[in-house]
Amino acid sequence: MSVYSTVDSIRFEGPDSTNPLAFRWYDATRVVMGKTLAEHLRPAVCYWHSFCWRGEDPFSLGVPLFNRPWFQGDPQSAAVQKLDAAFDFFARLGLPYWTFHDRDVAPEGANLRETNAILDSLLENAARKMQDTGVKLLWGTANLFSHPRYMSGAATNPDPEVYAYAAGQVKHALEWTARLGGENYVLWGGREGYETLLNTDMKHELDAYGRFLASVVEHKHKIGFKGAILIEPKPKEPTKHQYDYDTATVYGFLRRYGLDQEVKVNIEVNHATLSGHSFEHEVTTSFALGIFGSLDANRGDEQLGWDTDQFPNNHVALVPALVELLRGGGFKTGGMNFDAKLRRQSIDPEDLYAGHIGGIDTLARAFLSAVDLHQAAELDRARTARYAGWKNE
Ligand code: XUL
Ligand code: CO
């Protein structure tokens, strides 16, 4: 029993349903182009926005807004309660995957050893729950941006002690991702960037970041992790400038450090828009350069220039990117992670179902439209004809 137990399993009822807690477009078992919708979309619920964010914004001065039992009490038992609630939610919603940062699941201890031990006990518990519910791990990651030690970056921090700490943290998160059968490991460099060039040695920072990433790849092979290593591009926020600005920038970085065969990208809709591109631009670029990995599904707000992480609600806007996904052969290790959060005024626990249902219905509807376009093949015929001259001698 948890705050999410008030709802039964969410079912598909079709487009005519008026039940707000039913899927209208996401029929998980519907087969199109030889696979079910669940197999095509591989949707995931993220742990951080869904169960860790308390509804704060810069104006709430850290005062929590959402009332959840695990926001009170001692951090370790709260983390256990949060895990129980999260898996209760996953099981009732019925999406196949989840994603997490180490710090979402477990609080820090007094030092790295103690911190790792706390994480171990919670993830042992998560492993049992994954077994019981059948929910799988799309990707794991390490939070290298919340703790004060990371205020000037993790891999790009001017202090080598911080670099080493971050490496230790990633090592542990990567090993756990492998153990939980994760299909990818993600690095989002939230603070890998700069605030001002006046005090920044950019070449030093880029080399440090390249070396850090090379170590991640080396360790992946050492432990036999079969999943993909993914960088998540974003141009800014929290730093003024992030080194992983967009897909093309990440590709140049990977080439420079000899990692373009080893690392791919996790493209987020609103990060694409923040970098001045469209989502479909980023997806197409990653396929063209051979580094497409996975997607973070969300949207921004056309009148706001920051990372609002809203649930997708406009299926038409997503069709071009999904046509590209189909052209590119679909997901291999990747999927659609809802890196999306509720609005502050959505304070009821049930709202988390509504957000995800609306989001996955939007994706499913967009995907079905993309399948129609892809199968009609008019676009492909026109495109082939456009380059027909190159087929001649
Ligand atoms: C931040 C963001 C992260 C990554 C994982 O904008 O998207 O949540 O997805 O660290
Ligand atoms: Co993201």
Can you walk through the features of this model?
This protein has helices spanning 37-41, 47-52, 75-93, 102-105, 112-133, 160-179, 202-223, 247-256, 269-274, 279-288, 315-327, 351-376, 378-386, and strands spanning 31-32, 35-36, 43-46, 97-101, 136-141, 184-187, 193-194, 228-231, 241-242, 263-268, 292-297, 336-338. By secondary structure, it is an alpha/beta fold. The strands form three sheets. It has an eight-stranded parallel β-barrel, surrounded by five helices. Helix 6 links the parallel strand 5 and strand 6 (184-187). Helix 6 packs parallel to helix 7. The model has no long low-confidence stretch (mean pLDDT 98).
Features:
393 residues, alpha/beta, two-stranded antiparallel sheet, binds D-xylulose, binds cobalt (II) ion
In short:
With 393 residues, this protein is an alpha/beta fold. The chain has 13 helices and twelve strands.
- Report the average pLDDT across residues: 98
Query: What's the β-strand tally?
Result: 12
Helical percentage: 40-55%
Radius of gyration: 21 Å
Note the main sheet: 8 strands, parallel, barrel
Q: Report, as a whole number of angstroms, the end-to-end distance.
A: 70 Å
* Proportion of residues in β-strands: 5-15%
Q: Please report the number of helical segments.
A: 13
Question: Which regions have little confidence, pLDDT < 50, spanning 5+ residues?
Answer: none
> Class by helix and strand content?
alpha/beta
As laid out across the biggest beta sheet, the strand order is 3-4-5-6-8-10-11-12
Shape: globular
The set of bound ligands, ions and cofactors reads: D-xylulose, cobalt (II) ion
